[in-house]
Give the backbone structure.
Amino acid sequence: MIRVGDTMIPMARTVAFTLDGQPASAPEGELLVHAAARHGVFIPTLCHDDKLEPYGGCRMCVVGVEGSPRPLPACATRVAEGMVVSTDSSVPQYQRTLTEMLLAEHLNPDPGGRPNELVDLAEELAAEAPFILPDAKREPYDDRNRFMGYDPDACILCNRCVRYTQEVMQCSALSLEGRGPHARIVPTHGYSWLDTECELCGGCLSACPTGAIYEKFEEGTERPERTLEKVKSTCTFCGVGCQIDLNVDPETQRIVKVTSEPHYVSNEGNLCVKGRFAFNFVHHPDRLTEPLVRGEDGELHPTTWEHAFRVAAEGLLRVKEEHGPQAIGVLSSARLTMEENFLIQKLARTALGTNSVHSCEAT
Ligand code: SF4
Ligand code: SF4
Ligand code: SF4
Ligand code: FES
């Protein structure tokens, strides 16, 4: 048992199993794909996403398990005591054949410059499309929203996007439509993304392994995502403080997209529409980039931070002396962090002597 707060939680039992002839151990019930990774055995996946429930749809991660009549998906099989697992016999050939089958109808590997895990896998396995299926071409999809596009010719129907929107966003904005060569992922009932429950968070886009769902705009760049410089930052739009990567075009030094990684603390790679798509303000010509102080002429003039702070402090102290501390009110913001809001109320109560502190988002 381990203690979490006041609660005792039973610890998972460790079980012993065999992996490629070597003894291995794992907490009982751990997914085989994770247990293998901890033992240095990489099992490729395509439809698997750690944020989502085990699915086992694409079969890319199959492994041999003694006693099983057929290979089992490592992303949906849990380790059990005495299991004998093999990834080194017929498995690589199986993965290569599966990759070739997917490539045979993968007509557009790069609709929007996003990374493509299928292409990466094909390179790793030295797999090439043996031919292109005659009915590989699917009906194109055009959506009137400005942020996200979808190219059925890049889609491998892994369902990650649909599962993301259902399991993480708890909505039913996307569904799998049609069968066989007509199958596509589309906003539910054939509506536009804009006419569904979709909040344009871009989560389905980030979950897509092939880039079939992609950012429609890459302001001023044709560069693939992997050639952009990533600068780690914090979203400035609200106090959740999601961790983001600003993707900067190295040539123009402009931010052209925002991404986030599943291991980032506080948001685990999830973003809302503001954090993911509303970054153009950074380069807007009207944006204030330096402090301004009003001069004798009544106009605002650029100055140093030291001078701006001094002018603000002198002004506040003058009001306090002339009218008393209750003449001063402090407006804070839910867009700041909790720590910054704490400091602001401290400044108001202890330095300025007023309890009139409010958050502009509170009403
Ligand atoms: S953008 Fe977000 S809300 Fe919209 S379909 Fe994708 S995951 Fe669902
Ligand atoms: S759009 Fe992407 S995530 Fe959705 S099914 Fe197609 S390949 Fe998978
Ligand atoms: S991405 Fe959305 S939720 Fe996250 S900090 Fe930005 S505005 Fe807040
Ligand atoms: S990754 Fe395991 S079945 Fe798709």
